[in-house]
Amino acid sequence: KKGNYEHYMEKEIFEQPESLTTTMRGRLIRGGESKLKSVVLGGLKDHLRTMRRSRRIIFIGCGTSYNAALAARPIIEELSGVPVTMELASDLLDRQGPIYREDTAVFVSQSGETADTLQALEYANSHGALCVGITNTVGSAIARGTHCGVHINAGCEIGVASTKAYTSQIAVMTMLALALGDDSMSSRNRREEIVDGLFDLPNKVKEVLKLDKDMKELAKLLTEEQSLLIFGRGYNYATALEGALKVKEVALMHSEGILAGEMKHGPLALVDETLPIIVIATRDATFRQALRPCFLLLTYSRSYALIPDSKQQSVIQQLRARKGRLIVICTKGDAEAVCPYGVSRVIEVPRVEDCLQPVINIVPLQLLAYHLTVLRGYNVDQPRNLAKSVTTQ
Ligand code: UD1
Ligand code: BG6
């Protein structure tokens, strides 16, 4: 049932505070006098030792599920110390890429039925890897065929464009990172902060959903465009890819997610005063504000000025220098710092723990894709040529 909503996609975007709560229910430990704040993933507890000892963790998926794994990759590498590689299922199969007994292969799939992912599972299994599933559908082929796994419990998702499953997948993979890092004392504070961040995440998603009207306004400005670029890096490289996937699959508009670090190696040639560009520049290690001494000539006194010291700010400046039509997604309160020369539009989002920021940052882009689709008059829930679950190769 769509309730008060016009489309399932809209309903599922707005359901995210609740779906995230269900995903985390019973899995977060609040901590206390003698207890540490931590996580419990019932389906993995007997396999964590094997995963920690594996030579590498390979994430395998298609579409949005692949993007969710990409968003979680940095925190899994940080907390587990195990190298993480990424595979689009079809590409792994085309290459018949090497997989070993010492590997852990993690299969990410909302439906649990995607043909390429399922075949990659058979392939990894036959090579002796530990196969772990992250699925939304209990009893699905991938849930049954993996040695162990985690159900994301996001509830049934009907819109072909995945929304709430994406944010729940990231939440589960962040919990996986916490579980893998559970044996390390040195990361204890970091892990406890992330657990706190997870507890508060549904509230922060509620807050970011208030941008709905702003995103509708922005969609009106962009309705007639042919193309939209989205730049992100670090934790939010995945956000750029996933935002662009939403825009192309439902709004039927060409859109490309680009790693901002690659900007100078090609994409910069596209920038002119007409092409709209979204830059994700929320606070993390790629965006910091530094206080640097500067000398005032007149008084010879030393004072301090805010000088851009972040990779993403320098990306914004370079795009501005080429007269790019910029829309910047930044942390609440950073609008002025982010746009010293003024940009077309700023979208301010609440700040959360860096590794959880992709969950917040994707929401305005989901809303933008939704409104663009409605304004352009296309089918929101069943985009042409696409299926919710691709069970043939
Ligand atoms: C389980 C119960 C849940 C109950 C909770 C109480 C199920 C489906 N879940 O949740 O209803 O409230 O215990 O402690 O009965 N698995 C895979 N591959 C996958 C996904 C899961 O093999 O892709 C396996 C897991 O290893 C586990 C089982 O399926 O053995 C259930 O997984 P999950 O629902 O995530 O476990 P719990 O959260 O413990
Ligand atoms: C299809 C869907 O292409 O399959 C996408 O339209 C989805 O939304 C992709 O991301 C992968 O599906 P699943 O079920 O394996 O996560």
From TrEMBL:
One of its GO terms (molecular function) is glutamine-fructose-6-phosphate transaminase (isomerizing) activity. The keyword S-adenosyl-L-methionine does not apply. GO terms for biological process: fructose 6-phosphate metabolic process; protein N-linked glycosylation; UDP-N-acetylglucosamine metabolic process. It catalyses: D-fructose 6-phosphate + L-glutamine = D-glucosamine 6-phosphate + L-glutamate. Pathway: Nucleotide-sugar biosynthesis; UDP-N-acetyl-alpha-D-glucosamine biosynthesis; alpha-D-glucosamine 6-phosphate from D-fructose 6-phosphate: step 1/1. Its EC number is 2.6.1.16. Residues 47-186, 218-383 form the SIS domain. Keywords: Aminotransferase, Glutamine amidotransferase, Repeat, Transferase. It is an enzyme of class 2 (transferase). This is glutamine--fructose-6-phosphate transaminase (isomerizing). It comes from Selaginella moellendorffii (Spikemoss).
